[in-house]
Design brief:
Blueprint (H helix, E strand, L loop, with lengths): L9 H10 L14 H17 L5 H12 L5 H16 L6 H9 L13
Helix pairs in contact: 1-2, 2-4, 3-4
GO molecular function: metal ion binding
Pfam family, one: ADP_ribosyl_GH
Keywords: Magnesium, Metal-binding
């Protein structure tokens, strides 16, 4: 067992149980709630421990599954994606998003002008 699995916090244990299901749980309720993003992260961190390879294929498949889910999928993918990206490593991320990150140009905080 891991320290995570040995947590004495009952609420966290419920989250952990939900993350071990084959589905992403009820992500439609209370969208944007940290609990759902955390459960999503736990699920994919657990899947990462059993994956044969941690590469762009694993990362991309995980992101697609999250984004095809229900609820606040972009938030869940953003949070889980950051953690999974740290695990697989920058150079193992899919090529296109990696190139976009490297090509991003900071524009001095000018932002985007929007019509009022």
């Amino acid at each position: 067992t891991t320290e995570i699995e040995e947590s004495k916090n009952e609420e966290f244990q419920e989250w952990l149980k939900e993350s071990q299901e084959d589905k992403l749980g009820s992500l439609k309720k209370q969208m944007g709630w940290m609990k759902h993003a955390f459960i999503c992260c736990l699920r994919y961190l657990r899947l990462a421990t059993t994956a044969t390879t941690l590469d762009s294929t694993f990362y991309e498949a995980s992101m697609k599954e999250i984004l095809k889910g229900s609820g606040d999928t972009d938030t869940n993918a953003c949070i889980a994606g950051g953690l999974l990206g740290a695990i697989v490593g920058f150079h193992n991320l899919p090529e296109l998003p990696r190139k976009k990150v490297l090509a991003w140009e900071y524009k001095g905080g000018k932002g985007i002008k929007r019509e009022k």
